[in-house]
Design brief:
homotetramer; 361 residues; alpha+beta; five-stranded antiparallel β-sheet; 25% helix; globular; amino-acid biosynthesis (chains A, B, C, D); Chorismate_synth (chains A, B, C, D); flavoprotein (chains A, B, C, D)
C-alpha cells in the first residue's frame, strides 16, 4: 500500500512539493527493451506546461525532465528500458523566494490547506506544497512512458465543456484539438470559450470544465472482475487528479435515464468475421473488461479555488479572516487537465496490459 | 494485488459464483474485541435480499450469512472479533437446475458474457457466474462488519433518481427511506416511481437509477494524498459495483458549471470554537482528506441488461442471433444498489480509519 | 496488504481456526482453462494429514477439501479453472468438545499464546486457534493448485535432519521418500530416526528438524530484483510456516566459510549449445533471478512446543504456573512440514511465473 | 506490487544503477512531525561508505545524501517530516569513465550478469548496474529515517563470523563494535580477522561472513499472523540484501537439534510485576508476534564474487571464456552488510509499528 503510488505491474510513485528543489516519479515494472529517451517524454510535458496561453497560469517552468535510471544504450545504439525502475525528475526552477507569511497560517477555501493541517499538524504552505497541481507533471511523464508500452493503442483527450458551455458533439474533429489553447475538438466552441474565459480571467474568477479521454485500439479482454475492473481503475485514476469531482464511463450518468433497450450495445459480425458492437453506450467496457471498442471516460474539474474575490475563512490559530488568493493561477484548471487525463488513462492501460498478460499469457 | 479484493488495512476478498454452492468473503485486518454476531450482519443482508417487493428480482434466497472464523466468545460471554480473518459464507439455495443450453453459447448484450469469454476463453454462464450482482451480497456482509469498526459514523443511502425521474431535494426525509420499496427519501417520488416502474416491469423493460450515499460523523483528517485520496477510493468502490457507470463527489459534474466564488465552501468558527464550513459543495473532502463535513457520493446505475425485448447479438461460435433474456430480473437494479453503496462507503471508511491511525496515531 | 495473504499474481488468502467450523483459502489470479478437480488437491492433502504414522499427531481429520468456486466444466467435459477466485474449504471434524478451562488462561511456553494475547487482548485458545499448524493444510491445498499452473516444474521435499541426526547426502534417493514415514531420501537415516523418535515420543519430548525443498525445471529468468527476489520470496514463504526458525538457499550458511573461488558456479556451454553451470552452490538463483539450475531451499523447524514435561509459565492474569501440554501432538513437527514446504515453493513459483510473464511477455 | 519496494505503511522504493547519474529512494507513509535533517541520515551513510579501511572496496564515494521532499521547517524552526513522500538522493560521483568493453559481454560467475541478461535481454553492465551492492546505500538512508520513527528501540548489528572464524560469544562487547573496521563485538576476533583478511585480500580472493542484528526495546505485540509475521518480514528483508544466502531468527538452525524442553523459553513474573522470559531461544518472536525480548536475526553473506582468480564462464554470445574480475572490490562484503542489516531491521520494525497501530490503536 502506498498513498503516493498507483498501478500494480506498471507502478508509478510520485514525490515532491510545488516549491521544493524538485519533483519526480519512479516507474517500476516497465518491460525491458522499449526505446525511451528524454525527448519521448518531453513532448508530453510541454503540452501540460504552464504559461502556454493567457488561459493558463503564468508561472514559468521549463519542466525539463531527466531520466536518472532504468535505461541503457543497447548494442544498436538506441537507449532502451532495462526492466529496472525508471526514475524521472524535474527540477523546480521558478520557486520565487517570496514572502509566504500571509498564506502560512491561513486556510484558502477550496484548497487542501485546512485538511492537510487537520491530518498532519504541519503542511508545506509554499504554493500548495504536495497538494499543488504541479504534482500532475509527473503523471504526464509517467504517462509518456506508459504510451511506449502500449503499442497500437491511441489515447487522446479533449475539453468538452468550460463552465456551462459544452461543445457541439457534431463538430468533433480531433485535428482541431491542437489548433486552440483549450484542446477543444470543436473549433467554434474554442472561439466562444476564448471570449468567455477572458471575461472570467479579468474578473479574477474561475470556472470548471469537463474533460473526455478516449483510448482506441484496446483489444477485448483487458481488465478484470471484481475490484480490478478496468473502469474502476480508470475512475480512481481520474478522481485522483486535483480538483476532479466526478467520473463517467460511456453513457455515464445519462445511463440512469435510459431503458435497457436503448442502453444495450447490440452485436453483429463484421465483414472480416469479427464481433462488432453497433453502438458504444458502455464506453468499451462490460463487467470491468474491455470489449474492443474505444474506452470513453469523462471527468468533471471544479473551478480553480484560487480567485481574487475574498472568501471567508479561518487561520490555523482559529481566527476568522477573509482570504483572497493573489498570484498566478489558471482561470480554468480543466484545460491543463487534458494531458493529465490522457496520461492517467495510459498508465491504467499499461498496467492492465501487463496484468492481463500475467494471468492469461 | 488482487482482482477480487479491496481495501488495505480493512481488506475484503470476495469469491463465488451466482449458481455455485456458495458465495463468501474474507475480511482481513479487522481490529479485535469488536462485538460481532451473525445477527449484526443479517439485518443488512435482508435489506439487499431479492424478492422483497415486486420491483426487484423474484429470485428467492434467504441469504443467511454464517461466520466461519475470526470471532470468539470473550470472558464476558460476548462474541467478539479476534483480529484474525473473518470468513463469511452464504450458501446458494435457489440454484434452479434448469436448462442452460440456450444461454450457454449466447452473449447477452450489456452483460459481461462477451468480455469474460474474450478474456478467459471459458465462463460460468449459469446466472452470470462471477459477474452476477449476487456477488454484492458479500459486499453488504463486509460493510456490516465495517460499520462495527466505525464508531460514531452514520452511513445512509437513498435512491434519488429512477429513469429520468429525480426526487425533489426539498422533500428529503431520511425517515421515509424505510417506508417504501425504493429507499426513497421523498415519499412522493416513491409513489410516482411505483407506478412508473410497474409500467417498465410489465413491458419487460428496465431503467437506470442514481444512488446517493452520505456518511456523517467522519472526523477531519481521514484520507491521504495523492493516490490514496478518500474520494479516489470512494469512486473506485462505487464504480466497482455492477452496472455503475458514473460517480460524483459533492457537487460532482455540476461543479464544472460553477465559478470559483460559488463553489468555494467558506469557513467560520462555530459556537463552540470549532471550524465550521458554511456550505458543503466539496462533499466533505478537500485534497483527498475529509474536512469533517458529511461525505456525499452519488453513482449512476445503468438499466438492467436483462430485458424481454430481443436484441441483436452473436454466439460464442460467431453466429448472429437475437437474444431475449427470460427469467427473474430487477426492472431497476439501482434499487438494490442502495445497501450495496452504503456497504462500500463503510468499507472504504473503515480502511481509511485504520490507515489514518497507522500513520498518525 | 494483508497479514493472511501471500503472493501477488497468484495470491493466496487463508482463514480459519483449528477448532472453528472450517478452515479455507481463496486463490486469486489463477490462470483460466487449467484442469482442476478436488482429487487433484486431495492427494497432497493426504500427505500432510495427521495420524498417518505413530510419529505424527494422532488427531484424526479426513481433511476433505471442497472447491466452492472458480471452476466450471468446459465443453470437453473437463472441470477447469475459470480465472475467477478459487475458494477451497476443509471442514473441521475432529473438534473434540473437551474442557478448555485449563488451557484457557495459561500461556503454553513456545506457543503463540502469550503474544496473541499481548497483541489482540483476546485469543481463540482452542487448539491454538489461528496459530495452529492446522492452517498449513490450506497452504498444501493452494500448493496443489499452484503445481497445476507450473507445467514442467517438479517440486519435491525431503527431511534431511531430525534432531541432531542428518542424512548421509551420498544416500540420497528420491524414490525412498515415499517409503518411510519421514519423507527421508536416505533409507538408513529413516531407520535410525524411527528408533530415535520412538524414544522421544515415549519421553513425551520433541525434537526439531531440517527440511529441504528442490524445484527442478524452472527456466532461467524468473524472479526479480531487488525486493522481489525469488530467494527473498522463498525465504519469506518458508519462514512463515509454523515453527520455522531459519531458511537457507543453496550453500546457505556454509557459504560464509567459503572463498570466492570455491563458491563460484562456473559456466560452460553444454552439448546442445546451452549454458550449463558446473556446480550449484547458488541454489539456482543469482541476483534474485533463477539461472535454470534446480532451486534449493532448506529450513529449520524447532521442536514441537507441546511436551509432557512441565515448564514454567504464567497465566493471563499474571500468576506464575507450571504448564504441561497434554493431548495429541507431533514429536517432530518437521515431518509434516515437508509437504508444506513443497506447497510454499509451488505457490512462490506460480506467482513468479505469472509476474515474469506480465513484465516480459 | 513492486519489485523495488518493501514495507507497507512505512514503504521504501529504491531506484538507480551503480554507474548512472544517481541512486535514490522514496519513503512513503512516514508519520509527520518527526525531526529529520540530512545530518541525521548522513551518519549512517558514512558507516556503510566504501573505502573506510583496507578491508573494503577502495571505490571513493562521499555518498552525500540529499532530502528532496517530505520535510518542512516547522514553527519552532526545526525541520520535520510532513507525512508526504520523502525523496532521498545520492549522486554518483565516482563513475570512472573506463572501458567496459571487456566486461560488457562476459558473465562474471557468481554475479547476476547471466540472469539479468536471461530475464531482460539487456543489462547495465557498468559496475553491476542495478544489481550492484551500491543499491544498499539507499536502504541505509531509509533505515536512518525508520530509526527516527522508532522511539525507544535500539538496533545494533555486529559481524560474528568471517570465513570459518567465529567470534567468541563470551567476549561480546557492544562498545568494541566501533573500535575495529569489522563491526566486531569481540576485540580479539577483530585482531585475528585483520591478519586473516589481509591474506585473503593479497591473494585476490574473498570470504563470506555472518552478521547478527539485534533490536532491543520492541514491545510485545508487534507483528501479525500468518504471512505478515515479524520474523517472516525480517527474513525477507535480510535475504533481499545482496549476497545473502541464509537467515536465522533466535536459535535458528540450531533449534533443529534441540528438544522441546531445551528450546522452550520459560516465563516468570519479574520484580515489577511484568512477564519475563527466562531465556530467548525464540529470538523475541512467537507465532510471528514480538514477545518483548530482543529480536535476534542472523544472516550469512557469501564471499564476494569478484576475485582475481580466473573462473570459467561464457559470453553473451555463447562463447566459453575465462573471467577474472579486476577492479576495486571488498575481500569480505559481509563487513559493509552490517549497517545494511541494521537498516533493514529498522525499516521492518517501523512498518510493523505502524501496522500494529493501524489495527490495534
Amino acid at each position: 500500500m502506498s498513498h503516493n503510488s498507483f498501478g500494480h505491474l506498471f507502478r508509478v510513485t510520485t514525490w515532491g512539493e510545488s516549491h521544493g528543489p524538485a519533483i519526480g516519479c519512479v516507474i517500476d515494472g516497465c518491460p525491458p527493451l522499449i526505446p525511451l529517451s528524454e525527448a519521448d517524454i518531453q513532448g508530453f510535458m510541454d503540452k501540460r506546461k504552464p504559461g502556454q496561453s493567457r488561459f493558463t497560469t503564468q508561472r514559468r517552468e521549463p519542466d525539463q525532465v531527466k531520466i536518472l535510471s532504468g535505461v541503457m544504450v543497447d548494442d544498436d545504439g538506441v537507449q532502451k528500458t532495462t526492466g529496472t525502475p525508471i526514475s524521472l525528475m524535474v527540477e523546480n526552477t521558478d520557486q520565487r523566494s517570496k514572502d509566504y507569511s500571509e498564506i502560512k497560517d491561513r486556510f484558502r477555501p477550496g484548497h487542501a490547506d485546512f485538511t492537510y493541517n487537520a491530518k498532519y499538524g504541519i503542511r508545506d504552505y509554499r504554493g500548495g506544497g504536495r497538494s499543488s497541481a504541479r504534482e500532475t507533471a509527473m503523471r504526464v511523464a509517467a504517462g509518456a512512458v506508459a504510451r511506449r508500452v502500449l503499442q497500437g493503442v491511441t489515447i487522446r483527450g479533449a475539453l468538452v465543456q468550460v463552465g456551462p458551455h459544452k461543445i457541439a458533439r457534431e463538430n468533433w474533429d480531433w485535428a482541431e484539438v491542437d489548433n486552440n489553447p483549450f484542446f477543444s475538438p470543436d473549433a467554434k466552441a474554442a472561439e466562444f470559450w476564448a471570449e468567455y474565459l477572458d471575461g472570467v480571467r479579468k474578473a479574477g474568477s474561475s470556472v470548471g470544465a469537463v474533460v473526455e479521454v478516449i483510448a482506441e485500439g484496446v483489444p477485448s479482454g483487458w481488465g478484470a472482475p471484481i475490484y480490478g475492473k478496468l473502469d474502476t481503475d480508470i475512475a480512481a485514476a481520474m478522481m485522483s487528479i486535483n480538483a476532479v469531482k466526478g467520473v463517467e464511463i460511456g453513457n455515464g450518468f445519462d445511463a440512469a435515464s435510459l431503458t435497457g433497450e436503448d442502453n444495450a450495445d447490440e452485436i453483429r459480425i463484421d465483414d472480416v468475421g469479427q464481433p462488432m458492437f453497433l453502438t458504444n453506450h458502455s464506453g468499451g467496457v462490460l463487467g470491468g473488461i474491455s470489449n474492443g471498442d474505444p474506452l470513453v471516460a469523462r471527468f468533471a474539474v471544479k473551478p480553480t479555488s484560487s480567485i481574487l474575490t475574498e472568501r471567508k475563512s479561518i487561520t490555523r490559530q482559529g481566527e476568522e479572516v477573509d482570504v483572497m488568493t493573489k498570484g498566478r493561477h489558471d482561470p480554468c484548471v480543466g484545460i491543463r487537465a487534458v494531458p493529465v487525463g490522457e496520461a492517467m488513462m495510459a498508465c491504467v492501460l499499461a498496467d492492465h496490459f501487463l496484468r492481463h498478460r500475467g494471468q492469461i499469457g
